[in-house]
Write a structure and sequence with these properties.
single chain, Yope Regulator, Chain: A, alpha+beta, 112 residues, globular, 28% helix, six-stranded antiparallel sheet, 6 strands
């Protein structure tokens, strides 16, 4: 089951002050990016934050779940927490700061 575009748009709006934030559709679900780093997934209309020590410390008692079968565990953010934009924004900033910079894409080879 794919996630709804409205949910991705809502969460992007909630964390928009965290940096350059956008959602990218991926296999019917969404990847959430902040300053070019993938910080979260929206799968089955649920928000999963990439696990970091900073995120765990900020959230406190956190539930972990797999966003799709066979995936590693991510931090599952309950829907009632989505309404607190400042809390969600801080979580997005902390998560992004804890992640390594994205690897540069290889240069395309010129066509002969």
């Amino acid at each position: 089951m794919g996630s709804k575009q409205e949910i991705a748009d809502y969460i992007v709006g909630q964390i928009s002050s965290a940096g350059e934030v956008f959602a990218r559709k991926m296999f019917g679900e969404y990847g959430l990016y902040c300053d070019a780093k993938m910080i979260a997934l929206i799968a089955d209309d649920q928000l999963f934050i990439k696990p970091t020590d900073a995120g765990r410390a900020f959230i406190g008692d956190v539930e972990e779940a797999a966003p799709y079968p066979g995936a590693k565990l991510w931090l599952l953010i309950p829907e009632e927490r989505w309404e607190d934009a400042s809390w969600l924004t801080e979580l997005a900033k902390l998560t992004g700061a804890a992640l390594p910079p994205p690897k540069p894409k290889p240069a395309k080879k010129p066509k002969p």
